[in-house]
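TA notes, week 10

Several of you asked for a full example with nothing omitted. So below is the full record: structure tokens for the whole chain, then the designed sequence directly under it. When grading your own attempts, check the secondary structure regions first.
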């Protein structure tokens, strides 16, 4: 989650031309991430836009940054997830069927959108739109460093999936089937707007995708263990950053 936080700060820096203070930026980001546990995930953009003044940016700019960040996050996640699934999972065809007919179009649309945001200079946008978004006159909306942070983020999810599956099965070879599945399952959980933080959807994808490889009961255990660990990680990251902010406030 810290990789995503610093990526968003880099994005906001590129959009506004000034870098927000790091700790307030991290606090706002992680506050908003906890908001995704609300139905419809409306808490995430609402919390971040409500705290825009903490990072010295207009609410409209912060709202657009959420959309831009998600596009990069999805594009990198889909690309790495599909690649890892094909490379490591002999049951990839069965797993891909879980994505329905929307999987590959989602991948293509995400990549095209990200490439455009990386390549199209802001000077080509209408002046009225640049003014409304409160972004600079030159440079792409998405800095190249943002997808880099997202590659690191998804790399931790791949490692998480491998270690969770290994812990459940005791078989490091079987665990190799999980990295791509855990990435794509997380993407699908996010896209299921009705499910707070993808609860239920993500676990169903993990369990169904792993079952042909390690069996139904271990697959369900891996899915539930993954959810428990990710909740703990979210809360710990939020608590750590909040503690740092509180300590800094006391020192001042």
């Amino acid at each position: 989650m810290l990789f995503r936080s610093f990526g968003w700060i880099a994005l906001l820096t590129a959009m506004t031309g000034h870098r927000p203070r790091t700790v307030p930026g991290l606090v706002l980001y992680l506050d908003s991430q906890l908001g995704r546990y609300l139905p419809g995930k409306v808490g995430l953009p609402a919390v971040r836009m409500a705290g825009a003044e903490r990072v010295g940016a207009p609410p409209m700019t912060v709202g657009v940054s959420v959309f831009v960040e998600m596009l990069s996050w999805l594009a990198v996640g889909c690309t790495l997830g599909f690649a890892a699934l094909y490379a490591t999972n002999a049951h990839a065809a069965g797993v891909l069927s879980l994505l329905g007919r929307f999987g590959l179009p989602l991948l293509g649309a995400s990549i095209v959108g990200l490439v455009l945001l990386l390549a199209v200079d802001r000077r080509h946008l209408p002046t009225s739109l640049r003014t409304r978004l409160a972004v600079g006159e030159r440079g792409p909306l998405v800095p190249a460093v943002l997808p880099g942070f997202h590659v690191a983020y998804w790399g931790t999810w791949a490692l998480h999936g491998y270690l969770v599956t290994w812990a459940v099965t005791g078989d490091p070879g079987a665990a190799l089937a999980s990295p791509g599945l855990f990435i794509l399952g997380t993407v699908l959980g996010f896209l299921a707007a009705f499910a707070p933080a993808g609860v239920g959807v993500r676990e169903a994808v993990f369990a169904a995708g792993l079952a042909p490889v390690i069996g139904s009961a271990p697959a369900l255990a891996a899915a539930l263990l993954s959810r428990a660990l990710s909740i703990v990680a979210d809360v710990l990251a939020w608590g750590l950053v909040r503690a740092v902010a509180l300590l800094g406030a006391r020192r001042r």
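The chain has twelve helices and no strands. Use that as a sanity check on your answer.
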